[in-house]
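USER:
Class, as today's exercise, take the chain set out below, and explain how the chain folds.
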Amino acid sequence: RRSKGASPPRIEGLIQQIIDREGGNIRLSDQQIMEMLLREGVTIKRRTVAAYRKKLQIPSSFQRVREEVNA
């Protein structure tokens, strides 16, 4: 789970911020989050994004859309 450019707490914070900024009907996939982090200078794999997201107890993009539809 090594990443270049940031510490684990910083990466977790960035992932949380990215998801908090989701708007409208758009729910970002782990791949899209990975690409956004790359633009911030954080080199990380998609599966590592998924691991951090799960650690933060954030559902997948599919689950977030589904929860919104059922709300």
Remarks:
- Residues 26 and 53 are 17 Å apart (CA to CA).
- The chain has a mean pLDDT of 90.
- The longest helix spans residues 8-20.
- DSSP finds four helices and no strands in the chain.
